[in-house]
Design a protein that fits this description.
Oligomer: single chain
CATH superfamily of the largest domain: Zn peptidases
CATH class of the largest domain: Alpha Beta
Keywords: Aminopeptidase, Hydrolase, Manganese, Protease
GO biological process, one term: proteolysis
Structural class: alpha/beta
Pfam family, one: Peptidase_M17_N_1
Number of domains: 2
CATH architecture of the largest domain: 3-Layer(aba) Sandwich
Radius of gyration: 24 Å
Largest sheet: 9 strands, mixed
Distance between the termini: 32 Å
Shape: elongated
Strand content: 15-25%
InterPro entries: Leucine_aapep/pepB, Macro_dom-like, Peptidase_M17_C, Peptidase_M17_N_1
Protein name: Leucyl aminopeptidase family protein
Number of strands: 19
Length: 460
């Protein structure tokens, strides 16, 4: 279903948003019958609670949504969304109680509660309609919601229907919607110009490729690079079944940069956008790349393969080398890259790396405002030696196991040498269990924070 606001109408029910300490005062101003109904219900304004209040004819006349305490809200990203599923179907308008500074975030959470992945099974709408609150930029919120829905749909789609060919089709569909241009490199040209992308994907029946999308003719240049490993068996270093179960989401970086691109294009930001997606399946066949192979990257750096399951950094490296050749104002890479990042910060935070303190500050400021928390991790220079195997310039999987997210980020940084500002996001891209505004499954992570930071970083 489209995640959009309801049209304003007299029939929209008033919704009063109440913190626990505001319930008594609000009730004192209501008719006796409302006070009696409220008392009998036991409604206390707790986070995620809701109450329908009937009119004289028994039909709903208004509704209440518990907003909880500040401490409770700090533990839930979309505080109002928890009450949405408790409301009766229909249309609602915020009548009182919602702080103006929270209206945009809570409106986004409300819309996202309506998301359902229905490609393989019909899913009923989960959220009643919301009339855009006064002062909220409705087109902006709708664009953010649509971008999140795109990202979730792409990640949730299994590899049987979201291989490299299908991922290319999704990028072309998005480009067509907004007048962007797409070029795709595959076959012998890919093998020659992007040898590591080719090496990782050559064992799959669905051929590897590099997707290159461009949009915009003026403003600063932004290049997004997203890991598009549509399924990751681990290659010859095959994953155990317990680790392979979620590998349809290993193209989550690609899904997130496409979602971010959709935000940028839908809201017509004044910048020149380029999106690069190395789309592959890390499969197993007689021509799979092997442990101890040495690959020569597009940049000319040689890479010793010490684990074929560390393939994401290989395909990203070739794409980053291409991005760097153009020297844009900012390069951002996004990838479901390392389990070490999950160990470090868990599934709820999007860790990022950058050497630019201004970029970092902008991202950290934008994260809370965009309901998209991020956390800076370091490009720790003393670990550089860990990715230098001696026999080649770089090691794709240094031994020891410590600092895995950092060593992966340091590996990628070697391929961005001419662009002054670079940020890398090592995301999870998955919601392990349902939460308000976030259904279980594929998840946008870091993209809204980047979007919110762009005006400050690029001066647009």
């Amino acid at each position: 279903m489209p995640l959009t606001f309801a049209a304003p109408a007299d029939a929209a029910l008033p919704l009063h948003v109440l913190e626990p300490d505001a319930v008594e005062g609000w009730a004192a101003q209501q008719p006796t019958r409302v006070q009696a109904w409220l008392s009998a219900s036991g409604f206390s304004g707790g986070l995620g609670s809701a109450l329908m209040i009937p009119g004289d004819d028994g039909a709903p006349a208004m509704a209440l949504a518990g907003y909880g305490t500040a401490a409770a809200r700090a533990r839930q990203r979309f505080a109002l969304a928890g009450a949405v599923s408790q409301l009766a179907p229909g249309r609602y308008r915020i009548a009182s109680g919602l702080p103006g500074e929270a209206a945009a975030t809570e409106s986004l959470g409300w819309l996202l509660t309506g998301y359902a992945f229905s490609r393989y099974r019909a899913q009923a709408a989960k959220a009643p309609g919301l009339v855009a609150p006064e002062g909220v930029d409705a087109p902006r919120i709708e664009a953010l919601a649509a971008a999140e829905a795109l990202t979730r749909d792409l990640i949730n789609t299994p590899a049987s229907d979201m291989g490299p060919t299908a991922l290319e089709a999704a990028a072309r569909d998005l480009a067509s919607d907004f007048g962007a241009e797409v070029e795709v490199t595959r076959g012998e040209t890919l093998e020659t110009e992007f040898p590591m992308i080719h090496a990782v994907g050559r064992a799959s029946a669905d051929a590897p490729r590099l997707i290159d999308m461009r949009w915009g003719g003026s403003g600063p240049a932004l290049t997004l690079v997203g890991k598009g490993v549509c399924f990751d068996t681990g290659g010859l270093n095959i994953k155990p079944g317990s680790s392979m179960g979620l590998m349809k989401k290993d193209m989550g970086g690609a899904a997130n940069v496409l979602g971010l691109a959709r935000m940028i294009m839908a809201l017509d930001l004044n910048l020149r956008l380029r999106v690069l997606i190395p789309a592959v399946e890390n499969s197993i066949s007689g021509n799979s790349f092997r442990p101890q192979d040495i690959l020569t990257s597009r940049k000319g750096l040689t890479v010793e393969i010490n684990n074929t399951d560390a393939e994401g950094r290989l395909v990203l490296a070739d794409a980053l080398a291409l991005a760097d050749e153009e020297k844009p104002d900012l390069i951002v890479s996004m990838a479901t890259l390392t389990g070490a990042a999950r160990v470090a910060v868990g599934p709820d935070l999007a860790p990022f790396f950058t050497d630019d303190d201004r970029v970092a500050a902008a991202l950290q400021e934008a994260g809370p405002h965009m309901a998209d928390p991020v956390w800076r991790l370091p490009f720790w220079e003393p670990y550089e030696a860990l990715i230098e195997p001696g026999i080649a310039d770089l090691d794709n999987a240094p031994s020891g196991g410590f600092g895995g997210a950092i060593t992966a980020a340091l590996f990628l940084r070697r391929f961005v040498t001419d662009t002054p500002r670079y940020a890398h996001f090592d995301i999870y891209g998955w919601q392990p269990s349902p939460a308000p505004g976030r259904s279980k499954g594929g998840l946008g992570q870091g993209a809204r924070a980047i979007f919110g930071a762009l005006p400050q970083v690029l001066g647009i």
